[in-house]
Write a structure and sequence with these properties.
175 residues; two-stranded antiparallel ribbon; 11% helix; Cysteine Rich Protein; 3 domains; single chain; 3 helices; mainly beta
């Protein structure tokens, strides 16, 4: 590198010195002078070039993500852009369920897609009670799978059907 003589203008940055004409953006080669700059891998970039080259753009709004953000399906999102596909509430920081590559809050997923418990009619989702019982096209939360007559829990017992009801062996023999 040629010497910087006292009569020439020099730029100093992070303990190094450059000729003014050599202190340029690594990408567009425009002089950086006193403009804001970003250093990456010991190379200096003007802010617009750095953003074009390296910054993540939100999958939803396409604007640059300057800090934070979330990743969903390997795509970056602003926290405020990551919304439930149903009700549009912000999902960042809360549990959600993915369906057909769209995120849903638990309420919307339950209303739109989840199977309903045959006893309480509430949705059965992976975010709620993870354990459930399935029998002949019907599903129950584990805690709702009880004998229709005496209400004893049937999840770990044998059971019989009587019409649409499930009953324990004790109640079936009392009939």
């Amino acid at each position: 590198m040629p010497k910087i003589f006292p009569s020439s203008r020099k730029m100093e940055f992070k303990g190094s010195s450059w000729h003014e004409s050599c202190f340029v953006c690594q990408h567009c080669r425009q002089p950086l002078g006193t403009k804001p700059l970003i250093t990456k891998d010991n190379e200096n970039y003007c802010v617009p070039c750095y953003e074009k080259q390296f910054a993540h753009h939100c999958y939803s709004c396409k604007k640059i993500i300057t800090s934070g953000g979330v990743t969903y399906h390997d795509q970056p999102w602003h926290k405020e852009c990551f919304l439930c596909a149903g009700c549009k509430i912000q999902l960042s920081g809360q549990r959600f369920i993915s369906k057909d590559e769209h995120p849903y809050c638990e309420d919307c997923f339950g209303k739109l897609y989840a199977k309903k418990c045959a006893a309480c009619r509430r949705p059965i989702t992976a975010l709620g009670s993870a354990k459930f019982v399935s029998f002949e096209e019907r599903q129950w939360h584990e805690e709702c799978f009880n004998c229709a007559k005496c209400c004893v829990p049937l999840a770990d017992l044998g059971f019989l059907t009587q019409g649409n009801d499930v009953i324990c062996h004790k109640c079936s023999s009392a009939t």
